[in-house]
Specification:
- This protein is an alpha+beta fold.
- It is built from 4 helices and 6 strands, in the order αββββαααββ.
- It is 27% helix and 23% strand.
- The protein has a two-stranded antiparallel sheet with strand order 1-2. A two-stranded antiparallel ribbon has the order 3-4. Strands 5-6 form a two-stranded antiparallel sheet.
Length: 116
């Protein structure tokens, strides 16, 4: 959990310009995250961590999630969140098969993993 916390704190200070993708990245809102480590061959969960950490049982047992906890975990203004999300766009960079040059991915691009 400490490693995840350190990465989130470091990442929240990054502001970069991406020349290829043509956008500016401001990661100052990177304040939380989660990671799950899986065994490649079996898919078994090896480790899980989240920051900030919390007790997942508060969601499983009725009455354990207080109104204060609810406000901490959930943003009540979903409209503002959605509007902010729409303003930002995620851009994947891929290599053009014909020209071998990097370019923004399109909806028609197909990404394959583990083709062994």
């Amino acid at each position: 959990e400490q490693a995840l916390k350190d990465i989130i704190i470091e990442y929240s200070t990054i502001k970069t310009n991406h020349g290829i993708a043509g956008y500016r990245q401001d990661s100052s809102n990177a304040t939380r995250g989660a990671v799950v480590a899986l065994e490649v061959d079996t898919g078994n969960v090896l480790a899980m961590a989240s920051y900030p950490s919390y007790d997942p049982n508060i969601f499983a047992v009725p009455g354990r999630l207080s109104s204060e906890m609810y406000k901490e975990f959930f943003t009540p203004d979903y409209r503002a969140f959605a509007e902010e999300l729409i303003k930002k766009k995620n851009v994947k960079i891929t290599e053009d098969e014909k020209t071998k040059k990097m370019r923004p991915a399109t909806p028609d691009d197909l990404f394959r993993f583990n083709e062994d």
